[in-house]
UniProtKB/TrEMBL annotation, chain A:
This is Translation initiation factor eIF2B subunit beta. InterPro entries: eIF2B_beta_subunit, IF-2B-related, IF_2B-like_C, NagB/RpiA_transferase-like. SUPFAM superfamilies: NagB/RpiA/CoA transferase-like (SSF100950). Its main location: cytoplasm. It comes from Hypothenemus hampei. It comes from the Eukaryota. Component of the translation initiation factor 2B (eIF2B) complex which is a heterodecamer of two sets of five different subunits: alpha, beta, gamma, delta and epsilon. Subunits alpha, beta and delta comprise a regulatory subcomplex and subunits epsilon and gamma comprise a catalytic subcomplex. Within the complex, the hexameric regulatory complex resides at the center, with the two heterodimeric catalytic subcomplexes bound on opposite sides.
From TrEMBL, chain B:
Belongs to the eIF-2B gamma/epsilon subunits family. It is found in: Cytoplasm, Cytosol. Residues 475-640 form the W2 domain. PROSITE patterns: W2 (PS51363). It comes from Hypothenemus hampei (Coffee berry borer). Component of the translation initiation factor 2B (eIF2B) complex which is a heterodecamer of two sets of five different subunits: alpha, beta, gamma, delta and epsilon. Subunits alpha, beta and delta comprise a regulatory subcomplex and subunits epsilon and gamma comprise a catalytic subcomplex. Within the complex, the hexameric regulatory complex resides at the center, with the two heterodimeric catalytic subcomplexes bound on opposite sides. Signal peptide: none annotated. GO terms for cellular component: cytosol. This is Translation initiation factor eIF2B subunit epsilon. The keyword Lipoprotein does not apply. Pfam families: LbH_EIF2B (PF25084), W2 (PF02020). SMART domains: eIF5C (SM00515). GO terms for molecular function: translation initiation factor activity.
UniProtKB/TrEMBL annotation, chain C:
InterPro entries: IF-2B-related (IPR000649), IF_2B-like_C (IPR042529), NagB/RpiA_transferase-like (IPR037171). It comes from the Eukaryota. Residues 1-51, 81-103 are annotated as: Disordered. Its main location: cytoplasm. It is found in: Cytoplasm, Cytosol. GO terms for molecular function: translation initiation factor activity. Residues 42-51 have a biased composition (Basic and acidic residues). Keywords: Cytoplasm, Initiation factor, Protein biosynthesis. Residues 27-37 have a biased composition (Low complexity). Signal peptide: none annotated. One of its GO terms (cellular component) is cytosol. Component of the translation initiation factor 2B (eIF2B) complex which is a heterodecamer of two sets of five different subunits: alpha, beta, gamma, delta and epsilon. Subunits alpha, beta and delta comprise a regulatory subcomplex and subunits epsilon and gamma comprise a catalytic subcomplex. Within the complex, the hexameric regulatory complex resides at the center, with the two heterodimeric catalytic subcomplexes bound on opposite sides. This is Translation initiation factor eIF2B subunit delta.
Length: 346, 640, 496
């Protein structure tokens, strides 16, 4: 086995960084995953594309075992798997043929590539691609933010839930051209909405903080809901922080459009249809909703603290990525562009 | 091979010291074969959680002191390193074998001699689990040290509520701190039999602000300056951390060292397993995710279908449908027969339980066999490899598998089962000690299962009444109401407010707390009477008392309207007279007379009440002359 | 027509009063007979005591009258500012006293006493300076930037004319002054408790009031009551329950027979309040408890929101009846009343789960029924209730769970409202700054004075009728839309 040369320590380091909260935002995780891959490709012990793909697969497995909720890192690795396939095809000069009508009609016999073939040009091509990808990661948020003025017009009231780095940039970018009001829902139990509100107010956007319970009441005056998400699922649904489902329902009730800002690495090829699915949710510390000092009552009551909500696709109006807007029904297609179908399940 | 870890030890790596063994007999007979740190805790071993906590907390180097079954611990640690478990990446672990040590203090003296500690370090008592982020606290400690050179230790406490399961009575402490969080006073209230606590007066004179806490849970985690180890070496009588804290506080001037504390709030959790009771409560709290992000892996789908009260954890073990498990944790590879009933118990690995067995509030050690139809109840602990024969009843006993010096032959209950003598069985003069033993067993309150706290409190037998302070009643509405009434009345009396306003105030608090009319009557009268204790003693006492009562006449009129209210009033008098307050001997008769004369009470009710009194009780004696006088009057009356 | 039953009632009341009197008179005599040596009688004491009290009150009122008579209107306006300042001072002092008290308790946490006061956010330095919601909103109205434009109309601009009038505490019975503070400090919370407290305050007023000569009792009483309730309104807007109770009472006040003596009138009014409380509240509660009880089945999981006194009663009753069910308590900031509910239900032994409103869509799946309390039911069928109720109903509908709203008919209102903004109440925004479950400091605190940053703390919301399955009232289980019918019937009953 390869285990002597491949000790997985790089990915364990990544996991422990995430666990130790030295990497907090998904953006940071994305960047360090990219770094990990660059390192792996340039110094890793591999000779063929097959080897490399196996190395990456093992890292994905390791990640999804110890951090089942963490989609960003695995998605990036999954994307790179697809990149490897493509680059390999290019390198082995078979790409042109694969696209001919003849091959599509007569079946894809020659499509089965022998990835074990060792190609010297592959490494350089991959590293090239990765540096390109890195710039894409770095500019993704700005690209999304650049579209802000297409979606927000003057004197609108925007509601957002919790805090997302992308949403913050989006709103700030819009505020350069338009004046509008933002309603920030505080989003217990983490209350990230508070820090978002402070940051928006500092950049001179009229901001109102409301409690989670006031979402329905306020929704009747809201023009648009703009939120971030934890992951986008294959059916166009969301796994987002708990409370988002209620926001979506309220928006639906008042026919308010819901826009979800998301990076491509948040698109995950899994299908989930319900809220309490094993792999969807984790329970947080009960002390985040009721203080430990409440005493005897804690011995008896069951404190439910789910971290995530499943938001069905019909509650989402639009996804905005760095490539532009898409409706939830198009997510499956985006997925097939980013990942190879063989890599959906690892 | 994997020892070539890339973790480079920095010059100032954060160090932690874990003393792995308790040196008492809390966990006998199981600790004979399984060291405390290898106890299963929900789904992993205790040490796994402790080490993960340390690594997540930011510790880079840990020393583990082992005295018991060192080889097994070493084996486990090496296994972890081989599997590259999370903590192995960022933390180095050294095991220090110290079989000569017989106490916590010994370990630290040993450590001092070895000179391994470079600067401030984190000290863990046995059995600690927590989710605290240690680095900020360490930083705070260093800041404190810069201000106060003598700062030796920061003790971490967690804010907790009274009546909390994990607030072990043995750990109950009274802590006083000043505004800099310097500990001025620390007393384990449980160990003393006194009900009173004396604070030194200087404490209040020397500090502008003193906070006194009684709702703190000791996390058994401390942050120590390097001066701690020499202090332990200098003072051979320091056996535990508590000795240390007490010693330092007593001889503050001589040693020139001070203790600080840090009170954790929010999601920070810390606790230690040092007896079965804490083992149980920490297992439950861990299952309820209070130690997030240190959580057992569990299927989430179940989380609401099974409220806390019914959750059981089973690993790798088949449970037949006819068997019931309640609030229990079953270890790996165990077998459970048909129609087995297990509640509030812990079953370790590889246990075989045959059909029709009942187990409650007990711990079954590894490799035990419990044969058909047996019952293991009421805080029994079975050591490793015990075999309980068919249809035996094991109640409140410690059982071990082998014969040794501690066991007499007549205690044999089976081929592989010998009852260990409990100390409390012997004529233990020290009540406290016996109590401590009992309290260290699994939680008794759950015995009554689903019943409410009130009911279960009521069902406690006389013998357990002395323990009742741990089950301190929740601050219930009636008490709140009562204290509010006292407040308003005292204020009303002092400020000479109109009684009608006071009545309204009382009524509104009555609605606020949802108090029945009877309770209102009772509490209001009680409040008025209790106010008499604040009156100046001496000859003027009764006249001022009368003044007080006459002031409250409208209130008395308002509440004592009918016969049943009179009864409530009399009950209140009885209550006050029998309460802890020193009432004067004439007090009861004075009150009765006054109420009678002012027409608040009539004679039939007084006599009726008098009959309900226990003869020879103090109240009875005090009320007797008055009752006799009433009876005479009545007789005279009927004579006419 | 309408005179007949009234006089009947009067006769009855008189009987009762006389009966009582007789008893009182008999008692001392009896005592006399029984024991000759018993000293002085108490009835004197009592009489003088009461009379003294009345005299005092009367004197005050007369003084006030004199003042108003003597002073010209011009005078009045002159002194306005002065008086206002004085009043502010007094209020401030009261509040200060309150906060001081809470501080004292905080400092000695020897035993964590869960009292009303201790429940306030613990030891926060800014608590002391900003614990004055009334004053704050007033200042805000002047400076303006900290108001949310959308709900600008809801910020209460203290009625200046009003304030000048009520500056003089002599005008207002101390009971009402206290009540006002209790309302604004949210010591008395919940529409039932507020209505009860108001009625009991009116009772005290009835007992204490003395008509000046040449004035008709009811008229005079009405005037006094008006100024008292105006003051209360200034402290915190009336709940619908209070408005309705007050309206019923005023109706009675207007239709009282002028030929009765003052004492008779008093008795009639007191009796009226007693009956109102007994019939419209206590009996209604019992009836609703019974009705809901039928709907609770063994094995039910009931989701509730906040801490409605009625819902608590229902659940405790059902549990006493031996029903096996569990409860999911959903709670939300900033009031977090659900914790109190959790404590009470858990102590009673009911199996409870607790979740915050954001977890709603996770816990809703487990629920079989949703029980909600109400602040008021509006004529268009909308339910006005604690903020968040609409959200609970919305999620319940998304999961197809039945939503039962429990509401006494005395809380039905003739108002119509389609959203939560036209009429609402704004709470103290500073409540948001404190998070008791986190040890970190809140970023909002530092930016509190930023004009761009507002915090909106709405107290109520309006649930549209299509989200509510049924309303449980003491009359029947009805659809929301039958509110007008119930109102019509009730109005009909009253007019006969």
């Amino acid at each position: 086995m390869k285990s002597e040369t491949d000790d997985l320590s790089d990915v364990i380091k990544l996991i422990s960084d995430i666990k130790h909260k030295t990497l907090l935002s998904s953006h940071d995780i994305a960047l360090s995953t990219e770094k990990l891959l660059v390192n792996l490709i340039s110094h890793g012990n591999w000779s063929s594309a097959l080897d490399l793909m196996e190395l990456i697969r093992r890292r994905i497995k390791c990640l999804s075992q110890s951090l089942p909720m963490e989609a960003t890192a695995t998605n990036i690795m999954r994307h790179i798997l697809k990149v490897i396939r493509e680059e390999f095809e290019v390198a082995s000069k078979k790409k042109g043929e694969a696209h001919s009508l003849h091959h599509i009609v007569t079946g894809a016999l020659s499509n089965i590539l022998d990835y074990s073939e060792s190609l010297t040009s592959l490494k350089a091509a991959l590293l090239d691609h990765l540096s390109e990808y890195k710039t894409e990661l770095e500019t993704s948020a700005e690209n999304i933010a650049a579209q802000a003025s297409e979606h927000i017009h003057s004197n609108e009231t925007i509601l957002t839930f919790g805090s997302s780095r992308t949403v913050k940039m989006f709103l700030k970018s819009a505020s350069k051209k338009r004046t509008f009001n933002v309603i920030v829902v505080e989003a217990a139990p983490l209350y990230l909405g508070h820090s978002l509100a402070v940051s928006l107010a500092k950049s001179n956007i009229q901001t109102t903080v409301i409690a989670d319970s006031a979402v329905f009441a306020m929704m009747s005056r809201v023009n648009k809901v703009i939120i971030g998400t934890h992951t986008v699922l294959a059916n166009g649904g969301l796994r987002a922080i708990s409370g988002t489902h209620t926001v979506g329902l309220a928006a639906k009730h008042y026919s308010v459009p819901v826009m979800v800002l998301s990076h491509m690495y948040k698109f995950t090829p899994i299908y989930l249809g319900s809220n309490d699915h094993d792999t969807l949710n984790i329970l947080a510390n009960p002390a985040t909703v009721i203080p430990y000092s409440s005493g005897a009552v804690l011995n008896k009551a069951d404190i439910a603290t789910p971290m995530f909500d499943y938001v069905p696709p019909e509650l989402v109006t639009l996804f905005i990525t760095h490539q532009g807007g898409n409706s939830p029904s198009y997510v499956y297609r985006l997925l097939s562009e980013v990942y190879h179908p063989d890599d959906y399940e690892i | 091979m994997s020892k070539k870890k890339e973790v480079v030890m920095k010059e100032n790596a954060v160090q932690a010291v874990l003393v792995a063994d308790t040196f008492g007999e809390e966990f006998t007979p199981i600790t004979k074969d399984v060291p405390l740190c290898l106890f299963p805790l929900v789904d992993k071993l205790l040490i796994d959680y402790t080490l993960e906590f340390l690594s997540l907390g930011g510790v880079e180097e840990t020393f583990i002191f082992c005295c018991n079954r060192v080889a097994e611990v070493k084996l486990h640690i090496n296994e972890c390193i081989r599997k590259t478990v999370g903590w192995t990446l960022t933390m180095k672990v050294h095991i220090i074998v110290s079989e000569s040590c017989h106490s916590f203090g010994d370990c630290l003296r040993d450590l001092d001699a070895k000179g391994l500690i470079r600067s401030d370090f984190i000290l863990l008592e046995p059995g600690v689990v927590s989710n605290i982020s240690l680095l900020p606290l360490l930083k705070k400690h260093r800041e404190t040290c810069q201000v106060d050179k003598g700062a030796a230790m920061t003790v971490l406490f967690q804010e907790s509520g009274l009546g909390h399961m994990s607030l072990c009575p043995e750990d109950e402490a009274l802590v006083a701190v000043n505004s800099n969080n310097r500990v001025l006073f620390h007393k384990k209230t449980y160990k003393s039999s006194q009900k009173k606590v004396d604070f030194p007066l200087e404490m209040f004179l020397e500090n502008s602000s003193v906070s006194i806490y009684h709702n703190l849970k000791d996390t058994h985690i401390t942050i120590c300056s390097s001066s701690v180890l020499p202090l332990f070496s200098d003072n051979f009588d320091f056996q535990t951390k508590d000795d240390f804290v007490r010693g330092l506080l007593m001889n503050e001037e001589i040693m020139g060292s001070t203790v600080y504390c840090n009170i954790l709030r929010g999601t920070d959790y810390g606790g230690a397993i040092f007896n079965w009771r804490t083992y149980q409560s920490i297992s439950l709290e861990m299952k309820n995710k209070f130690l997030y992000p240190l959580v057992p892996i569990s299927k989430i789908g179940k989380f609401l279908n099974s409220p806390v009260t019914t959750t059981s954890l089973v690993k790798n073990t088949e449970v037949p449908r006819s068997s019931v498990l309640l609030r229990s944790i079953i270890g790996e590879n165990s077998t459970i027969g048909e129609n087995v009933h297990i509640q509030d118990s812990f079953i370790f690995d590889n246990v075989k339980i045959e059909d029709d067995v009942r187990i409650s509030l007990s711990v079954i050690g590894p490799n035990c066999v419990i044969k058909k139809g047996s019952k293991v109840t009421a805080g029994s602990i079975l050591g490793e490899g015990v075999v309980i024969d068919e249809s035996l009843l094991i109640e409140n006993s410690l059982v071990q598998a082998t014969l040794d010096d501690n066991v007499q032959l007549e205690d044999k209950i089976g081929e592989h089962a010998f009852r260990l003598r409990l100390e409390e069985d012997e004529d233990d003069i020290e009540l406290d000690k016996a109590l401590a033993k009992r309290m260290s067993r699994l939680h008794v309150y759950d015995l009554v299962g689903e019943q409410s706290e009130y009911e279960s409190d009521a069902t406690f037998s006389e013998s357990e009444e002395e323990l009742s302070h741990i089950h301190s009643p929740p601050p219930d509405d009636t008490n709140l109401f009562f204290s509010e009434v006292i407040d308003s009345l005292t204020r009303g009396f002092d400020d000479n407010l109109q009684c009608d306003n006071l009545i309204l105030e009382i009524n509104s608090s009555r609605y606020a707390y949802n108090i029945t009319v009877k309770e209102v009557n009772f509490n209001v009268i009680k409040a008025i009477l209790i106010m008499s204790h604040n009156l100046p003693e001496g000859t003027q006492y009764f006249s001022s008392f009368a003044k007080l009562l006459s002031y409250f006449t409208p209130i008395l009129r308002n509440y004592i309207k009918n016969e049943s209210a009179m009864m409530d009033c009399l009950k209140a008098i009885e209550e006050v007279a029998t309460s802890d307050f020193q009432v004067k001997d004439k007090w009861v008769i004075f009150v009765l007379k006054y109420f009678y004369e002012k027409d608040h009470l009539n004679e039939t009710e007084i006599l009726k009440w008098f009959d309900t009194l226990e003869p020879k009780s103090t109240v009875h004696n005090q009320a007797k002359p008055f009752a006799e006088w009433l009876q005479e009057a009545e007789e005279e009356d009927s004579d006419e | 027509m309408s005179q007949q039953p009234l006089s009947d009632v009067n006769a009855k009341v008189n009987d009762q009063i006389f009966g009582k009197d007789k008893k009182n008179k008999n008692k001392p005599q009896n005592n006399n007979n029984l024991k000759g040596n018993a000293p002085e009688k108490t009835s004197n004491d009592k009489l003088t005591e009461k009379q003294l009290r009345k005299l005092e009150w009367e004197k005050k009122l007369k003084e006030r009258e004199l003042e108003t008579d003597v002073k010209s209107d011009a005078d009045k306006t002159l002194s306005k500012a002065e008086l206002k300042a004085k009043r502010r001072e007094q209020q401030e002092a009261q509040r200060q006293a309150k906060t001081d008290k809470s501080k004292v308790i905080e400092q000695v946490p020897e035993k964590p006493i869960v009292s009303k006061i201790a429940k306030l956010p613990p030891e926060l330095p800014y608590l002391n300076t900003h614990k004055t919601p009334l004053k704050k909103s007033f200042e805000a109205s002047r400076t303006n930037p900290k108001q949310v434009q959308l709900v600008k109309h809801l910020y209460r601009i203290p009625n200046l004319e009003h304030q000048s009038k009520i500056v003089n505490f002599k005008d207002i019975h101390p009971v009402f002054v206290r009540l006002g503070v209790q309302y604004s400090e949210k010591v008395i919370l919940g529409s039932n408790a507020r209505a009860l407290a108001l009625l009991s305050a009116i009772k005290t007023l009835i007992n204490d009031i003395q008509t000046p000569s040449k004035q008709e009792f009811c008229r005079y009483f009405q005037a006094i009551l008006q100024s008292c309730t105006d003051y209360i309104q200034d402290c915190r807007p009336f709940a619908v329950s209070m408005t309705n109770a007050l309206r019923a009472f005023k109706h009675q006040l207007r239709h009282i027979d002028t030929n009765h003596s003052d004492n008779e009138k008093r008795a009639i009014l007191l009796e009226f309040i007693e009956t109102y409380v007994r019939n419209d509240m206590l009996k209604a509660w019992d009836a609703i408890c019974m009705k809901v009880n039928e709907k609770i089945l063994n094995g039910d999981v009931i989701l509730i929101y906040g801490c409605s006194s009625l819902i608590r009663r229902i659940l405790l009753e059902a549990y006493k009846d031996g029903k096996h069910f569990s409860v999911i308590i959903v709670d939300s900031r900033p009031l977090l009343e659900g914790r109190e509910m959790l404590r009470r239900l858990a102590v009673a032994g009911i199996k409870c789960s607790y979740a915050i409103i954001n977890s709603l869509s996770c816990v809703m799946k487990q629920a079989t029924k949703v029980l909600l309390g109400a602040h008021a039911l509006l004529t268009n069928g909308s339910v006005m209730s604690r903020i968040g109720t609409a959200q609970v109903a919305l999620v319940a509908q998304a999961y197809n769970k039945p939503v039962l709203v429990c509401c006494e008919t005395y809380k039905f209102s003739e108002r119509v409202q389609t959203d939560s903004f036209v009429y609402n109440e704004i709470g103290d925004p500073d409540l948001f700054l404190n998070i008791d479950t986190s040890s970190n400091s809140n970023p909002l605190v530092s930016q509190k004075d930023n004009n761009k940053l507002n915090i909106l703390n709405l107290l109520y919301d309006v649930t549209p009728p299509d989200l509510v399955t049924a309303v449980v009232t003491e009359l029947a289980i009805l659809p929301c839309t039958s509110v007008p019918a119930v109102l019509r019937i009730n109005a009909g009953e009253n007019s006969i």
